[in-house]
Write a structure and sequence with these properties.
about 190 residues, mainly beta, four-stranded antiparallel sheet, disordered C terminus
């Protein structure tokens, strides 16, 4: 789930056997009914709000629902952005190494984080035995691999001024030299 403290709204994924999966929002003050935000019945996860609380990024399972896969057991996702207009937009496809882990207890869904200004999304993707930390603009343009972490199972990107990622208990801050262009460079400094 994701929570917007400014509006006191909770965003969450839910499942029923009748209508399958969807993403909902609800004010936590108890007033009003829950509002369905998605139109495509699927499995959803990794919900995250933009820093201004106006957009919601999430993962949607891509076609594995018909094969009976749980969200954690799926190997392909769509990264979806729901903007202030309420329209669902597919930003990119995310691979997550189908069959990568026999023990689903150690498998996590890919992580998603907005950049501090909300114009980009950081996400993880598993290709073969290597975890990739990637960045893409919210309009789906300029996808770039920032780091490749062999034999890693999870990385979490922090929404701090200097994004940081960690894996297996270690954390690294990431310095971004930015002049407002797509050719910004990234460097990793190990703590």
């Amino acid at each position: 789930p994701a929570f917007d403290p400014a509006t006191r709204t909770l965003y969450y994924a839910a499942w029923t056997d009748d209508s399958l999966g969807a993403v909902w929002s609800r004010a936590i003050d108890g007033g009003g009914a829950a509002r369905k935000l998605t139109t495509f019945p699927s499995q959803y996860g990794s919900l995250t709000l933009s820093p201004d609380g106006r957009s919601l990024a999430l993962l949607r399972g891509a076609a594995d629902l018909v094969r009976g896969q749980t969200l954690e057991g799926q190997g392909r996702f769509d990264l979806i952005l729901i903007g202030p207009d309420g329209v669902e937009r597919r930003v990119t496809a995310v691979d997550w190494g189908e069959g990568q882990y026999a023990n689903f207890a150690t498998k996590h869904s890919p992580g998603i984080t907005f950049s501090p200004d909300g114009s980009e999304l950081y996400f993880t993707e598993m290709l073969a035995d290597t975890l990739h930390v990637k960045r893409i603009r919210t309009d789906g343009v300029e996808e770039k691999t920032l780091y490749q972490l062999p034999h890693s199972g999870r990385a979490v990107v922090s929404p701090a001024r200097w994004p940081a990622f960690g894996t297996r208990g270690e954390r690294w801050p990431v310095s971004r030299s930015s002049r407002g262009s797509a050719s910004s460079t990234m460097s990793c400094l190990r703590l």
